[in-house]
Amino acid sequence: DVKVTQSSRYLVKRTGEKVFLECVQDMDHENMFWYRQDPGLGLRLIYFSYDVKMKEKGDIPEGYSVSREKKERFSLILESASTNQTSMYLCASSPHGGEQFFGPGTRLTVL
Amino acid sequence: RKEVEQDPGPFNVPEGATVAFNCTYSNSASQSFFWYRQDCRKEPKLLMSVYSSGNEDGRFTAQLNRASQYISLLIRDSKLSDSATYLCVVRSGGYQKVTFGTGTKLQVIP
Question: CA-nearest residue of chain A to B46?
């Protein structure tokens, strides 16, 4: 059974803190993605990676960075969290040209 | 114009009804199309891919109209368990990047 896991379901951080969101997939997929989902705005792509150590900016990369040192792991980093980064963060993976499989999401609140 | 547009709904339909959603896309070079389903407080999951010739999976039928740049999802004999948000997804260009619509909420009423 395919599986994408995220390090936390719920996270509360303070403004200015550095935040790490981890995502691991066990399907040997080449591609991995980070999205945020907000009411009325849908899923918006932050960053994606199509190979180890490769990354591409999505639609809203400002305030975020990513790291992919191993094929199965894709990390999202908020260098200095702000209140407007309060959101649901969803990680996904896919083979090239294939279906995206999502993790359960991390609901991040920045106070 | 948004890359992918959907009517947010909600569509409130009685059990057993047939309901259809459309989704328009702006990039005529778009290559792949999908419908995902997202239950409340859950992650999106693939419902079905959309093929050029149209495709059916049980009570669900998906169609693509390239000339008018829209895809559709038809649900026949609606069940209570069909209540969810349906996301239209479009892949364009040579990248693996896809664009999600904001979703159409369906509520099937007893």
Answer: A99
Q: CA nearest A103 in B: which residue?
A: B43
Cβ contacts of B87 on chain A, cutoff 8 Å:
42-43
User: Which residues, in sequence order, are CB contacts of B5 under 8 Å at separation 6+?
Assistant: B23, B24, B25, B101
Q: Are B35 and B88 in contact (CB under 8 A)?
A: yes
Sign of CA dihedral B50, A50, A32, A28: positive
The whole-angstrom distance between residue A11's C-alpha and the CA centroid of its chain comes to 14
Rounded Cα distance between B107 and B2, Å, is 25
A86 touches chain B (CB under 8 A): no
Alpha carbons B61 and A98: distance in angstroms, whole number: 20
pLDDT tens figures, A33-62:
999 999 888 899 999 999 998 999 998 999
Please, which residues have CB within 8 angstroms of residue B12's CB and are 6 or more apart in sequence? B107, B109
Q: Measured in whole angstroms, how far is the alpha carbon of residue B88 from the centre of its chain?
A: 4
Instruction: Tell me if B43 and A90 make a contact (CB, 8 A cut-off).
Output: yes
Say which residue the tokens 């999502």 belong to: A102
B91 near B98, Cβ under 8 Å?
yes
Q: Which of the four pLDDT bands, split at 50, 70 and 90, describes residue B94? A: low
Q: Indicate the SS3 state at residue B81.
A: helix
Tokens 């349906």 correspond to B86
pLDDT digits (tens, 9 = 90+) for A74-86: 999 999 999 999 9
